[in-house]
Design goal:
single chain, alpha+beta
Length: about 850
């Protein structure tokens, strides 16, 4: 057996070969291009060598460099996989000259079968049925004469290559004349061979192939047949074995024809004999021989229980044994689908970029090379993986396939996954009445939106965002105006947590690939659907192909929201679909919208019918002069501020600074006088404190400038926060725009809780919320410190931070490791007790912030 084998390939087949080599105890050498330096096959192999830059001609097709690596690393053999150099007889001969074994058929066999016109000659001599056709054509005139004799339509074919390249249907003389030179040129450019020929076209045809394996000494076996009829642009998409809907006599005849060809050539290693099957006449004809391992070999392995890659290695090493004794009996049925990096909604154009989530289900075979975090380059074939299932019957295999596709997820770039789901559920596939033209007649029904232009700051968000990760520094994100967001979801019948689109200042231009129902809300942004104005706060039906143009905001407010029925389909990242653009995670990809992005729409998920009209009194009241309800605290007078500072804070009208974002809204206003000269141990400025957790919506004095911390803001900090916006008013920070005026209104806890209850009811019942606040009585009706005590050793201080946060402080404001241990002990106790309503716990240096749902857990409790 070999000691070391080089894999002259990449992607899933390279990974597959390396795993087989490991199972055989054989060392592996991977080659890779600069673009593939982080690819899985590089990590899997025992050794890996870069053979050139990204273009295939300078890397994976660089025969001289690969031979050099073989000599340098003293490899015994090369496995070419499929594609690239797998059917290159010159490469096989060069290896042989260097004393390296080529794992595959001989160079002579590749030459005899590699050109389709010579393969036809062997097939004719072997008594294999042939379609009416020609030898190599010398001129267009000869092609025209031969086509007349055969009868239109005809197929114009390149004699070299495969994968559907150099293959054109000609329905009449004019089409033949038009396509002759282009096919010839394509063949020369792709395969360095300009030979072309004609073959009769079968109108309703199936593509059926037989897997053969030869020992090189005349022994050849057939391992069943595969139906590969479901093709798009002559590229296979779905393969299965056994082929459905053909008689046993036809099946046996196919096997015998393939065996005759293999035996005639004393074929060695794995190969595939391809046939065209005329559905109308129930007859098959020879098509070509692929002198390599096929992409779809996995379905044969599943049904026959063999490892064709291992067989190829053993045959090349002279250790295969008796083929007839090796051949097992087939069992059941197997189906394979190919997952491609391509966008079915945009005519299947290839896609590239970062895969933000890859998930495959258990219970099926995945031959793939991508994982979460893989960067798919634009340089190579778009095949990402093959999903293979097996069942005792075709019906069982089909059910497994449908279940597996439903459980598969790939996000970050566009793939054909949704297209495969539609194929697997189609009548033509379920009934097995497939043909090579079937997919052309099966329309893809997309459910997505194409981003033609992104707008200023547009992102996918969900409500309430990424809750539960504050303690590790990950902000919740989510919509800045949660009220408008929840309301537009309510209008289209979605649950309030369905993913929607948040748009800031100016909106995107979106082309809908499929029909949809949407609703717009929030700030009144100009909106036109195919040039016609779109109303806000009501459901709007959009047809496939229509373009929604969202412009600037006309009037008050800063953010507009778009909900689509069922919600946007984005991956869950740390429990949320919300975009955290600074962290480059979440959302549809890894940030705000960009031109060319595709926003997928879920096909189910709505829980209620659409709402035709929302009462005006339920809509958020937008203004340029805001009053925002807050609770005093966590930090106040007299510890940090003077009483005069607090009075000034509530009496002043602040102005929104131009430098505001989702991280925080900066305000311009009076500077505090401060109750102390500096921050003590925490810093020189009196706003400095030892680090403690922040609440979303808290007013943070960073030096003398107040900042309302937003949903993308910092989780911990060393600055004082005199007030925190209550949950029922938090939506307002999303609509603050530069130049707006803001005044803070001090509420009691009871008022805050009532305000939130009324907001929830208004969203649920779509009736106006009751008025819960009266005239201002005094600037701070409740103290920032809501309770004090001790634990028997050090003082304890409980500070309110809005109606959903409680800040527990231990001891004096000093750096003391013992205080940090006390914080940790309290956190551990709460984690163990798990009080209902506690959302998350975030420790600071000498404090613990408890984030809780005040609707489920009272502050007193």
């Amino acid at each position: 057996m070999f000691n070391k084998v080089l894999i002259a390939n990449r992607g899933e087949i390279a990974c597959r070969i390396i795993r087989t080599l490991k199972s055989l105890g054989i060392g592996s050498v991977a080659i890779y291009s600069e673009a593939d330096r982080h690819a899985p096959h590089v990590r899997l192999a025992d050794e890996a060598v870069c053979v050139g830059p990204a273009p295939v001609a300078q890397s994976y097709l660089n025969k001289e460099r690969i031979l050099e690596v073989c000599r340098e690393l003293r490899v015994d053999a090369v496995h070419p996989g499929y594609g690239f150099l797998s059917e290159n007889p010159d490469f096989a001969e060069a290896l042989e000259g260097a004393g390296v074994v080529f794992i595959g058929p001989t160079a002579e066999q590749m030459r005899r079968f590699g050109l389709k016109h010579t393969a036809r000659q062997i097939a004719e001599a072997s008594g294999v049925p042939l379609l009416p056709g020609t030898g190599l054509l010398a001129s267009l005139e000869e092609a025209v004469d031969k086509a007349e004799a055969i009868g239109y339509p005809v197929m114009l074919k390149s004699t070299a290559g495969g994968g559907g390249i150099g293959l054109q249907l000609c329905r009449d003389r004019a089409e033949l004349a038009e396509k002759y030179e282009s096919v010839q040129r394509l063949s020369l450019n792709n395969f360095s061979n300009s030979g072309i020929f004609l073959e009769k076209y079968v109108a309703t045809a199936r593509h059926i192939e037989v897997q053969i394996f030869g020992d090189g000494r005349g022994g050849v076996i057939a391992l069943g047949e595969r139906d590969c009829s479901l093709q798009r642009r002559n590229q296979k998409v779905v393969e299965e074995t056994p082929a459905p809907g053909i008689s046993e006599a036809t099946r046996e005849a196919l096997h015998q024809a393939a065996l005759a060809l293999g035996r005639a050539a004393h074929y060695a290693s794995a190969g595939t004999v391809e046939f065209i099957y005329d559905v109308a006449e129930e007859r098959f004809y020879f098509l070509e021989v692929n002198t390599r391992l096929q992409v779809e070999h996995g379905v044969t392995e599943e049904v026959f229980g063999v490892d064709l890659v291992a067989w190829m290695i053993r045959q090349a090493a002279g250790e295969l044994g008796d083929l007839a004794a090796l051949k097992p009996e087939p069992r059941g049925a197997s189906i394979e689908v190919r997952l491609y990096a391509e966008d079915p909604g945009r005519n299947f154009q290839p896609s590239s970029g970062l895969l933000t989530q890859v998930h495959y289900p258990l219970g099926c075979r995945i031959d793939g090379w991508v994982e979460t975090g893989t960067e798919v380059s634009p340089y190579y074939d778009p095949l990402l993986a093959k999903l293979i299932v097996r069942g005792e019957t075709r019906q069982e295999a089909l059910r497994q396939l449908q279940d597996a596709l439903a459980a598969t997820a790939l996000y970050g770039i566009e793939t054909n996954l949704d297209y495969l789901r539609q194929i697997a559920a189609s009548r033509v596939f379920v009934q097995g009445t497939v043909s090579t033209a079937a997919l052309g007649a099966l329309p893809f029904i997309p459910s997505a939106i194409e981003v033609l232009s992104p707008g200023a700051q547009s992102s996918i968000q969900d409500y309430p965002g990424r809750i539960g990760t504050w303690n590790v520094g990950v902000p919740p994100s989510g919509p800045m105006d949660g009220y408008s967001f929840r309301l537009v979801n309510r209008i289209v019948g979605n649950p309030e947590d369905a993913a929607g689109l948040e748009m800031t200042l100016t909106g995107p231009t979106l082309r809908f690939q499929g029909d949809a129902v949407v609703a717009l809300g929030g700030a009144p942004m100009s909106a036109r659907l195919d040039g016609v104005a779109v109303p806000f706060w009501q459901p709007v039906t959009v047809k496939a192909g229509q373009v929604l143009e969202l412009g600037g905001i006309d009037g008050a407010g800063n953010r507009t929201y778009l909900a689509v029925r069922h919600g946007f389909d984005a991956p869950l990242y740390l429990g949320s679909r919300s975009t955290f653009s600074l962290g480059r995670f979440g959302g549809h990809a890894v940030g705000v919208l960009r031109t060319g992005d595709v926003l997928r729409i879920r096909r189910s998920g709505a829980v209620a019918p659409t709402v035709p009209m929302v009462p005006a009194a339920v809509l958020p009241l937008l203004t340029r002069d805001w009053e925002i309800g807050v609770l005093y605290g966590p930090h106040g007078a007299p510890d940090f501020f003077t009483d005069s500072d607090i009075e000034t804070l509530f009496a002043s009208r602040y102005e929104v600074h131009f430098n505001s974002a989702r991280t925080g809204v900066r305000l311009i206003g009076p500077k505090p006088q401060w109750a102390r000269q500096d921050g003590g141990e925490a810093g020189l400025h009196p706003s400095n404190i030892h680090d403690n957790a922040y609440a979303v919506g808290t007013l943070d004095f960073t030096g003398d400038m107040p900042i309302i911390l937003g949903p993308d803001g910092p989780s911990l900090g060393g600055f004082v926060c005199p007030v925190t916006i209550v949950q029922g008013e938090l939506w307002k920070i999303g609509q603050l725009r530069p130049g707006d005026k803001v005044r803070f209104r001090a509420l009691s806890l009871a008022e805050a809780e009532a305000l939130r209850t009324e907001e929830d009811r208004a969203l649920r019942e779509l009736t106006p919320a009751a008025k819960t606040t009266g005239p201002i009585v005094n600037p701070f009706p409740e103290a920032a410190v809501v309770r004090q005590g001790d634990d028997g050793e050090v003082p304890l201080c409980y500070r309110q931070a809005g109606d959903d946060y409680l800040l527990v402080e231990f001891g004096p404001p000093e750096l003391d490791i013992n205080l940090r241990f006390k914080v940790h002990a309290l956190m551990d106790w709460l984690l163990a007790e798990k009080p209902a309503g506690v959302i998350e716990l975030t420790p600071g240096i000498r404090s613990l912030q408890i984030h809780y749902d005040s609707r489920r857990l009272s502050r007193n409790r």
